Amino acid sequence: MDVLTRxxxxxxEAARRLxxxxxxxxxxxxxxxxxxxxSAAPREACRAVGFERxxxxxxxxxxxxxxxVSFEADPIMAADFARLARAVRPRLDRCAPEHEAVVRQMPVxxxxxxxxxxxxxxxxxxxxxxxxxxxPIVRDGHTVGLLHAxxxxxxxxLDELDRELLWTFATGIGWxxxxxxxxxxxxxxxxxxxxxxxxxxxxxGASELDGELSGAPGRxxxxxxxxxxxLHLMSExxxxxxxxxxxxxxxxxxxxxVRHILRKLGxxxxxxxxxxxxxxxxxxxxxxxx
Length: 290
Description:
This protein is α+β, with helices and mostly antiparallel strands. The protein has helices at 10-29, 34-49, 75-88, 96-104, 121-127, 160-191, 225-235, 240-247, 251-265, 270-280; strands spanning 53-60, 63-70, 108-110, 132-139, 142-150. β4 and β5 (142-150) form a beta hairpin. The longest helix is centred in the middle third of the chain and has 32 residues, at 160-191. The termini are far apart.
């Protein structure tokens, strides 16, 4: 067998994948906002680290709140899963592995996911995963998010190397968030008079230090009251039909509002727009007329 085609040994394979993590971190750290990092991280986990599927979630109090997903082999399945994940927002006390990852700030490898106890069954059933790894994203000593990944559809078994690499990747995400937020702080100070202290981020995108929605006025302030209502419902996982029913407007009107929201926020898609909105901690506005 030619040396160039010989399979890599375990040590060389681990080194190759670790270099992939390092390259992915360089790319993510170069992004200009935390929201864009949140949107891109699952795709990087798949392409650079070697997983088939990956999902990033926020920790919102005692709940897991979906943020972004990547499954390039089946985008329709990924979209279906994303809709369910946005809608259910499971409590941590109903997700034993996730709760352990949040509290202990350690990765967890879940085997036999379809039969194991203590899992949030609706999501594991829809995902049809046989095993997965979940790793905490930590900032300022607080677990602010979770990264899930698996080898769905490949026949490969998850192992300890997968667990450690995902943990390394998730740790890098936390550092990249701090780096991006720090650049946002510097931009904000340079744009202002520097007299007022700026808050410190303690969770994903908190206080919008990444500059996407901060400033006077921020991009969020360019939205109309109705657009803010639509964006809030989008953040809860509502479909266009559900948004139209809730606000008593047509789906065509909903689609028009969504287009305006994406344009005003500079978001590439709904996921990015929702990530930007959730990062502000904004509350639902008072009801508006169409």
